[in-house]
Amino acid sequence: MTPDSNASPGPIIGIDLGTTNSLASICDERGPRVLASRDGSRLLPSVVRYDPDGVVVGEAARAGAIRHATRTVSSAKRLLGRSAAECMRNGLQLPYQVVAGPRGLACIKLEDQTVTPQEVGAHVLAALRTRAEESLGQTVTRAVVTVPAYFDDAQRTATRDAGRLAGLDVVRMVNEPTAAALAYGLGERSAEERTVVVYDLGGGTFDVSVLRMSPPEEEDEETLYEVLATAGDTRLGGDDFDQLLMNRILDDAGVDQDAREGLSLEALQALRRCAEQMKFELSNRDQVSLDLQLEDRLLPRSLRVEVTRSSFEGMIQPLLERTIKACAAVLADAKLQTSDIDRVVLVGGSTRIPAVRDAVETFFDCPPYTALDPDEVVGLGAGVQASILEGNRSDMLLLDVIPLSLGIETVGGAVAKLLTRNSSIPVRASERFSTSIDGQTSVKIHVLQGERELVDDCRSLGIFHLTEIPPMPAGIPRIEVEFIVDADGVLSVHAVERRSGRQASIQVVPSFGLTPEEVDRIESDSFTHARADMHAHRVIDLRVNAALDVKWISEALERVRDELDPTYVQSLTGLLDDVRAQIRLSGEDVTRIDADAFHASKELLDKESIRLHEAAIAASLREDPGSGS
Ligand code: AMP
């Protein structure tokens, strides 16, 4: 597709121009979404390389940054609109030389040229503009761009200049925390004033802001988003966590301080990659081990590294405490207490770390919003602001009821609905489940939306796993799944295995990507297929239960066959074969099964197996007199 070159101004896109990564978004009747590149990348590294024959932007520039160090610029956002003297004073550490340009403004000195941070920003913005035009098939000339809440006038003007150089009219600049709140639709449903904290922990920086949202007084006005206070630390983030893990790896390898100074750049890079990889895995697992192959005379050639989540949490604890102190300071600045805060929103890749989430939850005494990807939430909010400016938000689903039922997948591919459509929000419901296989230590929780009975006919909202359940016989674990949809329409699903206390959760925004037309279609489909769906659901449930019965009865029969009357054994075996045949057939095609007949065969088998059950209990009492109940 090529852009339409007519003079129409085209849509307004949203852009998060980030220090490390940037992204473009749009918000149409399906809600906000990221505009991906042709190869599917959603984030664009904010890295630019100046080659003799042209400029390289994004992933290729990032990947070659070390090889082409003298021609590559990263983190230019840190210099935007600032004087060179100010950057020196703040001790900014960047892999290139910062020099004073016109009016003393910070510029970047490369191999054979000097560039301004605005020019670097313009290359990133132009790459996003091209990406948006390819994805939308339209010319794009206008954008909403996000900036940190603490950006002053000079930094904002420099951002606007970068846009102009990229052929983009920056129609509005939105504070990053405000964008994060907009992405969640905060402030839109509420008729009352709301106070929101945005906790943003990225790779190199930490910011926390308090926002106040006031509903419009007149119908044609917008919600007012006001930043009451911000605080942060420009040298605190995920990179520090990587450094701590690297130190730990070097400690374990017995490399002393002096030797660390002499490590090659390649070895340091390999160690850093390994540390970051371990950090990612520790966000999902309790323990990780990695085999690291190294080419450095000061290090062992191969190194086995093991770290537990709890030791990693111990390492980063002092840094987390610094972020929490900043949260306390920002509240004090805004003259607020934690009890005044209505919502907490998480932004930045490092907020995927469970200990970060826990620290925030403990301090604010409320679970933070994590449903949106923390790397995309600011960019999505820019898209929402763009669509507000275009005045086309009326089609979006902003409801005070859940438009479609919500549930989870059960064994066999059926859906157990926990919340039915049109329930008013906020609403909660819970249901108890168990395992279907002996010794099962992990359960997949697949969250679904829709009116149909089978997983394949519903919309998947997300999957998470409840892991490390102690092995128990099938049916013994007590897994409670709770659904909570809050007043903003955000769904939190929480699962806990009561006997072991293991728990896991997920948050999603069910209305994202849904249009009113789609809701209507899903509803009418459910009427059309109601009879067939009910039949399929019933057969699936029968199959699952019958399979458990067959398993138990055949095992018991093997144990006590010799003690039973052969005619009884023969009739029970015949009934077992009948049910097995029904199970097999129902697995092939549910529509061919007579559910009543299947039900009747299963009932008959259950009834006939009572004698077997009694014999099995008597046998086990003889073997172990203490085991009867
Ligand atoms: P940002 O600057 O917001 O893009 O955040 C980047 C930081 O988030 C980097 O330090 C990443 O290592 C970190 N990060 C990304 N994903 C994860 C994860 N799953 N667990 C821990 N840290 C992560």
Protein architecture, described:
The protein is 37% helix and 24% strand. It is of the alpha+beta class. It folds into 4 domains: 12-174, Nucleotidyltransferase, domain 5 (2-Layer Sandwich); 238-315, ATPase, substrate binding domain, subdomain 4 (Actin, Chain A, domain 4, Alpha-Beta Complex), CATH 3.90.640.10; 401-509, Sandwich (Substrate Binding Domain Of DNAk, Chain A, domain 1), CATH 2.60.34.10; 529-628, Up-down Bundle (Substrate Binding Domain Of Dnak, Chain:A, Domain 2), CATH 1.20.1270. A hairpin with a 4-residue loop joins strand 13 (194-201) and strand 14. Helix 6 (238-252) crosses helix 8, helix 13 (530-560) packs antiparallel against helix 14 and helix 13 packs across helix 16 (610-623). The termini are far apart. Residues 1-5 have low confidence and may be disordered. The structure holds adenosine monophosphate (AMP). Adenosine monophosphate binds next to helix 6 and helix 8.
